[in-house]
Input
Amino acid sequence: MRTETASGLGLPGDIDADPDTIRSGAEALVELRLSLTGQTEETDSRFRSSAGEFTDLVAWDITTAAADELILWEDTLRDLTYGAAALEQWAQDIEDYRAKRTNLEDRFNTAITESAEALGDPFAVAKPLSRIRELLLEEHRGYWNTLMEQAEEASDSLRNGPSADALARMAQTGLLTGTQLSYFGDSYPGMLPDDLPSPDDHPSTVNTWWHALDEEEQQQLMEDHPELLRDLDGIPATVRDQLNREHLEEEIDRLEEEITEHEERTKETAARGGNGSDSIALSMANDDTLDQELQTLLDLRESLEEEDSDRYLLALDTNGRGRAIVSNGNPDTADNVATLVPGTTTTWQSIDAQMDRAEALHQSATAAGEGSDHAVISWIGYDAPNFAEAAGTGRAEGAVDELSRFQDGLRATHENTTRSNNTVIGHSYGSTVVGHTAQSEAGLNADEVVLVGSPGTNAQHASELGFLPENVHASTAKNDGITGLTDLTHGADPTSPEFGATVFESDEGSEGGQWPLGAAHSEYFKNGSLSLKYMGEVIAGKH
Output
């Protein structure tokens, strides 16, 4: 089961398996399932979103079948559905193992380099390489044992059907939907909440709960609990969009009323005369703030309502630094989905500029993959740091749960026959958020990672992010002021050879610009730029 190739660390040979070949097997099972359920992807997509509709779709084909033939029909669909998911899971497990293996090798090579440097420094203490090798090999044994357990799970799932634990794992990675499990009469512990779900529930649990409701129950919950559903990962994008557009109108009405009240108070203060100048100035300043917030919301509404616009408002919170998440394209039906994580000083009021960047990325992806559907999400889903806070890791750590859960939610709500190709793009401090999330216990559910204008990811090597180095893409413009801030508090420069990422070219960028990072730091999404072209290709699955 192993290859014969050994590493400098002394690792045993890699597992003799090709994830691409395994995924081809999964795709073959999906194609066979499609041929049994109406020969169209549309039919299968409807199956994933509504078991009741699917029953109606296939019933006309088998109305004359005997009871045992009906059972055989359903068992065949079940086996094909679960078999494809089990193969996809096994391919992902292999890639996860290889990313950890690469990380071990890189850590040993770093230890060798440090030991060699210590030999030339009379004040340095060389690390005992034999002990380091022993510890790393022991760590690898743990990874290998886990992989063998996963191999046994995959084999058993294919031979005998998946266990409850296997079903839960495939649901949480987005390979199975709760609707599919419910249709086949299967479940696992915790698959459905006892009452209303909470933001702490896994998005796969939320999605299963939602699709277990009938249309009337869903509509009633939308009326009774809009504040819960509109921001809940695992709820379909179309539902969140509807509820957040309604919330947007409420916020516009609220601000218009507040502005009117402020104007009336200012007039009353002015009419009284006397020493009210300070109060008038303060009131005018408050009016300016409210006017800016209102204009941001009006601009957002206009963007959402543009003719031929295919945008989805997935979150909106105007309190403090707030939240604003908008998808250009439906992430639940797109073949390729990208999440853009912004950096320093971003607030909910930055959504217009972020949507412009998402639009540029969407156009670039469309040019690179014309035959596919794409969705690019402007994700202002965390409290971004100000410049003083950007040197620390607190804001990045504070974003981990939100970004991880959001990415899991994209998997849970996706409706297509096969998984979407998901990319996470971190710009500036957003790349630091991506790095912390990828290295967290929760992890980052994506296929590709892009880091532009990055101060670092809290890692010394790309493999520490849990991705194969070829799936981590990095670029920094020559004139980007961030070049003077890498290798400091956020780990290694992602564009350095030692980091091991796939480095792509950016334009040099404009010289000068606003302190401290300059104009070039914000030009990665500029139309016609090398960086925008490459990122579009990554989103479209071309790298």
